[in-house]
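Final report, Chapter 2: Outcomes

The project's central promise was a pipeline that accepts a single protein chain and returns its three-dimensional structure in a standardized token representation, suitable for archiving and comparison. That pipeline is now operational. To close this chapter, we reproduce one record exactly as it appears in the project archive, with the input sequence first and the structure output second.
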Amino acid sequence: MMLRNKIKDTDAVPEMLLHLVPNRFEVIGDVAIIAIPHQLQAYRHVIAKTITAQRKNIKTVLNKVTMLEGEARVGGYETLYGGETITLHREYGHLYRLDVRTVFFNTHLSYERFRVASKVRHDEHVLVPFCGVGPFVIPAAVRGAMVTAVDNNPMACKWLAGNVRLNQVEKFISTILGDAQCIPRMLNAGFDKTIIPYTIRNGPVFMGYCGDGKGGRHYTFLYLQEAAPDSGPGGRVRT
């Protein structure tokens, strides 16, 4: 049942405000993230309680109060239930431990990550800039590719290192803590594939470095949806 219908059954939110209740929320491991409109602030704890009643595994409920900010692209959160924000997330057989307060992770892209990983072949050399905690890195390495992962967020690199060990792919992954300015030069280093998260900010820059698939070189571009958890999945830009 949709969250809005669950809330309606509780009679805790006035009928005139029910249409503002988000129907969906994001779940990362055992942490639920929802963006509650300001008109519903008086009812936010009721909404959190309804989420935990609906999903028994949820240990923490966070209300996203600011959108993605800064180079780390993390949101600002208000704790509505629980408090622990370090969690273990499972996706297509892979494990990711992370702190949702300090690193970016988008579960809406889970199928896109699976789709992209299916295009990676054994022994290919793959570059993954803006790698985060490794949701594009780990699946490629599991398939036997040699992966170079780059991120300028020390916390992301810390969690990635742990996830590399957690998924037992240490020999396939090299991690670089570095700025995106070095990435255009790396595109000429002989990688077979480059998996780049396409955003309004970095997309125009890297599209200029995109190969045409000739000579065995192929780049994968992805669009990361910068929206609230109530939004649907992002779309592909170029593959």
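Archive annotation: The chain is about 25% helix and 30% strand.
This record, like all others produced under the grant, will remain available to the consortium after the project formally closes.
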